[in-house]
Task: structure prediction
Amino acid sequence: MAGMILAEDAVCLNGRVLLRSGATLTEQHLKIFRTWGLTEADIAGAVGTTVTESLPDDADPELVERERKSINERFRHVDAGHGMISALMRWALAHAIETAKNASDR
Amino acid sequence: MPATAKQLAETIATVPSLPAVLSRLTNAIDDPRSSLRRIEAIVQEDSALAGRLLCLANSAYFGYPARVDNLSRAITLVGWRQLRDLTIATSVIDTFRGLAPSQVTTESFWKHSVACGLVARILATWRRESNLEQYFVAGLLHDIGRLVLYVKFPDDMSKVLGVARSSGKLLYQSEAEHLGFDHAAVGGELLKRWNLPAHIHAGVEFHHAPQRAGAHKQMAAAVHIADILVNGIVCGSSGERYVPSLCIEAWQSLDLPPSIVDKTLDLLERQLADALSVFLEDVG
Result:
């Protein structure tokens, strides 16, 4: 978010430094980051803070609960505490809710 | 019931071989005296392959900024070795597309396969690997052994599916318990028989045990993680209901942050429709 301070240089995938550490982020910086495919940066006082958020807040709680349950069942053979797995579960949940929402809108 | 490795080998021996264009192309690519014109002539002979290659060069899969309207330009852009790998992909799909197992729909099976290929390729992109199409092919073919099992041993596989469902076990573990081997072993054997590059058949054979893949660990790890991601979001299915267990060592060996999951799946969404139509629909 704008106003945060970069703890490390913001480097995009091809190795180019977009912004040096110590800089205060502005909306314009964030826009440039997204353009260059950079979706996260190290922020002073936080570790691996995600710049872009994806989870919808206005979802039907019953639907969220149902999807969460089915996802938990599907992931029964893996450790939900693992960083990669929890990221995957979050994406699967957000995606399932979006799909259900699109289907009901139609 | 096919309980031994020998019977497994016999089963595989009855699977058709790949089209001749693939071996002609491989020979031409491995021959240092080959010219672009010679490669183009071989691709041209197979109009379906030529059509697919052009479609692919113009799709989000490669994402080239300008329109690619002729074959020699497409071949130059894609590169010879990558062309060979893509020809492997289309050859296997064409050879197997007619198979219609009763346990899963063909559509669902190939969607899972193509998605897994794309994700393995995207993971390789993040790692800046150079042989991207090999990652695609290994991901695409990782469950080909299961398709063979469905078709050659429909009754056994229905039983295995039933057991996996009622016991809540992973399908590949049930296969191993009931058949004595799993689909990864079948796929690996089949790809070896076809003389596909070692990188590819090892990626398939060890996608549930990437720590055993030796020199091909990175490839097996990429396919292993791709399979987990694609099962996690239920993008098609080869019959497995659960997310396969994670080999933590494999994830660590890729040396990618967990945040790569979002980026990878977003990219998959963008590439999937194009890739499905290029690889699975008839092109004239």
Notes: Chain A has two domains: 1-52, 61-105. The radius of gyration of chain A is 17 Å. The interface with chain B takes residues 13, 37, 39-40, 48, 50, 54, 74-79, 82-89, 91-92, 95 of chain A (CB under 8 Å).
